[in-house]
Specification:
2 copies of one chain form a homodimer.
Chain A: H1 14-33, E1 37-38, E2 44-46, H2 48-60, E3 63-66, E4 72-75, H3 80-89, E5 97-101, E6 104-106, E7 118-127, H4 132-148, E8 155-161, H5 162-171, H6 177-184, H7 192-201, H8 206-216, E9 219-220, H9 225-230, H10 237-253, E10 260-264, E11 277-283, E12 292-296, H11 300-305, E13 311-317, H12 318-327, E14 340-343, H13 350-362, E15 367-369, H14 376-385, E16 390-393, H15 396-400, E17 404-408, E18 414-417, H16 419-429
Parallel strand pairs in A: 1-5, 8-10, 14-15, 14-16
Antiparallel strand pairs in A: 2-4, 3-4, 5-7, 6-7, 7-13, 8-11, 9-10, 11-12, 12-13, 16-17, 17-18
Helix pairs in contact in A: 1-4, 4-10, 5-6, 5-10, 7-8
């Protein structure tokens, strides 16, 4: 007998949950330093809100159902529609609006590495700013988060622009540009022959296919983009403008991070609603899904509530991030406070132990006392098992002379001192005696 | 056109979400200081996990459905079953185990003040300790959280003991003790005549009803409990032991908080699985639902996985807590860092502005730059609208002499200073220049 969690869901125990708590606090603090403010929205929304944006394809992969009031509802599969819903419901917000949120998201699909049925995602968006500075700021935020998690050098940023791609495909005379972008999105997931025949199937001729393959299989520095393109297609003014904007964005981005920024014309991101820059963060060793991804989506507010509000944002999921942090040895708690067990051989002194523990807790220092009436040696053993660093042993005779014993639990070293001196030291050294 | 959130759900905008972020961090920090560690569990669980504990009554009020794999699943309506599931799946945990979690919970019921279809709840449990010290510690944690939120004096703690109640009812010769406890749970929600007839309906005689009413309508100090009981019923040894344990717990509890602790024999808490102490926190002005509630439930681990593990815990929901904090003027952000806008009249200096902003952000200081190519006066206006406290104005001539202008946005006072001096001041005063 016994219950287990559902497939694709996670039980997270303290050894990991503590790291996650710290991780999300760090991410939030960075977002706040960029001037972003938090929002929250329901975990359950009308299914219709997601249909307008992503169509029935996404809906198939949702945990959606009819609630007891016969409404079609869904556990939210992504953050953007709700975020835009909140934005358009508050017309008083001075633009640009910088918002972040850290929702749980749910998708009904086959679980695999870095892809779960439930995950937590950090989301950030800037509304009401269309400049390269806005594009660079949102990507820069993603980069600064990773850099602050000591992942600098471990990832590269791939950028592209959906406008640019549309203009390039138009220059090539491609008729079904949306379909072609969808096929390009498969690059790297299917082999090149399959990709070519998919491109053929939607009406592209051999010249077009040849050129598209030439363009998307290369990854170039932003400064080399113009050359890459002009070697394959005629660049009209609009296309040149797109290239210049993308280059400008990448140039501003170098102020935020030293990570490699490359242009990869295969990076188009599947979702149909991107209207400008698109970007993804990838680990340099490969093999993982994207660490973060996002782009500009200037027409979604129109769909949600007939308002014209430009938008650029990204999401960063916890699953791939955890894999990367583990792989690079960074999945560790780096702000751990020392933890104390206040022990006594005498049950008469339990109130005294509690008094001391409460004083430590008032300073924010983790402190526990015995709850089971155990012997002193059992208390000390339990303190170690419970991850304590120090024991404060309160003995009857010591206490009369105003002293306690401070014992380092790993090494076993101990000294007599007064509790007041322990407190003073803790205040001075912020938890590390 | 436009979408709205579902009934009983909430959109939370920055002005409140910022307060909530701080609030939950504070609560977590206090839990950690008590030696509690975080856990996380899925938002969706097999419906069966909740049926074993709470029966079909609760199930009717869940957001439950069949998933695409035809499994009966539910969005979790409470934290305890999942917490116990995690505990029993990890037999290596040294007892006592102190865990906390902050899940979203969902109940399909008519929304009303302090009762929503989705809410966030802080949960804490101690497993593997049965003493009064354990009982006092869990209630003490709830009290310290409220006290730290400056709510001391605003609430009282009502305690009772399910064992004690069972023994008292046995002493009164009550046949249907579970049924009688369920009726007692209605005290205060229905009038006394209705309550009496409910007690009569399940087989209690007039003497029993009279005595039960006498007992449950009083609220007494823990030290007066023995007198209250002995005035109405004969106390056998077991009952006396229950009273003594409850008194001992209340006495230890006074070490944690100065809040009033009272015994209220009507406090039995509906859920059938409590086996010892039960407790609730109530605002002193009345009118609100309980701020927190919990108790001892030593037999749940047995139901979940045939293990005997004692347990005591509580939940504290965000909805009532917010109402109480608002009512007492404590729904305010008390750790707000000053926010800066780095502005310039010259677009040529935007990179310089960004450089300054990034340096502020590195210190964790919120800083924004213009993203819209606005005039300086529009930038300053936008900075105020975006809740900035200071503007750092970067002018071409000033910069040549190594200076910027630091302007206080509310008062309008400004001075010439070097950016380095601003940084130095910020480091010294942690965000307040």
């Amino acid at each position: 007998m016994g219950f287990e969690h559902l497939k694709g869901f996670r039980d997270i125990f303290p050894e990991d949950a503590q790291i996650r708590t710290d991780l999300f606090r760090k991410i939030e603090d960075i977002a706040v330093s960029f001037g972003f403010s938090p929002i929250e929205y329901p975990s359950l929304e009308p299914l219709e809100l997601f249909r307008i944006k992503s169509g029935d394809e996404l809906v198939k992969q949702t945990f959606s159902f009819k609630d007891k009031g016969d409404r079609e509802v869904t556990m939210i599969p992504e953050a953007t529609p709700s975020t835009v819903r909140l934005l358009t419901s508050r017309k008083d917000m001075p633009k640009p609006v910088r918002w972040y949120s850290i929702p749980r998201l749910w998708r009904y699909e086959e679980p695999q590495s870095g892809r779960l049925r439930e995950h937590v995602q950090f989301n950030a968006d800037i509304f009401g700013a269309e400049s390269s500075y806005a594009d660079a700021e949102i990507i820069g935020l993603a980069a600064r988060i990773l850099d602050n998690l000591s992942l600098n050098g471990e990832y590269e940023i791939r950028v592209n622009d959906r406008n640019l791609m549309n203009h390039v495909l138009r220059g090539l005379g491609v008729a079904d540009r949306t379909g072609t972008l969808s096929v390009i999105d498969h690059f790297g997931k299917v082999d090149n022959d399959t990709l070519s025949s998919e491109l053929r199937d939607i009406g592209n001729d051999e010249n077009q296919i040849y050129t598209i393959m030439k363009l998307i299989e290369k990854t170039v520095k932003p400064s080399a983009l113009m050359d890459l393109l002009s070697s394959q297609v005629f660049l009209d003014d609009e296309t040149i403008e797109d290239v210049n904007k993308l280059e400008a964005t990448c140039s501003i981005l170098t102020r935020y991070t030293r990570s490699d920024v490359v242009v990869n014309l295969a990076t188009v991101r599947g979702l149909g609603y991107y209207t400008g820059i698109v970007f993804e963060g990838f680990d340099k060793n490969g093999g993982l899904r994207s660490i973060f991804g996002g782009g500009r989506y200037d027409s979604l507010a129109q769909l949600v509530s007939s308002q014209n509000i430009s938008a650029v944002g990204f999401g960063m999921g916890d699953a791939v991030l955890e894999i990367l942090l583990r792989r690079t040895g960074k999945w560790i708690l780096d702000r751990k406070l020392n933890k104390y067990a206040v022990c006594s051989p005498s049950r008469k002194l339990y109130d005294q132990c509690l008094e001391f523990a409460l004083k430590l807790r008032n300073l924010g220092i983790p402190a526990i006392t015995d709850l089971n009436g155990r012997s002193l040696s059992a208390q000390l053993k339990n303190a170690s098992a419970n991850d304590c660093d120090y024991a404060i042993i309160v003995g009857e005779n010591d206490l009369k002379s105003g002293n306690v014993t401070l014992r380092e639990l790993k090494g076993g070293e101990q000294k007599q001192t007064s509790f007041e001196d322990i407190l003073k030291d803790l205040v001075k050294h912020k938890g590390v005696p």
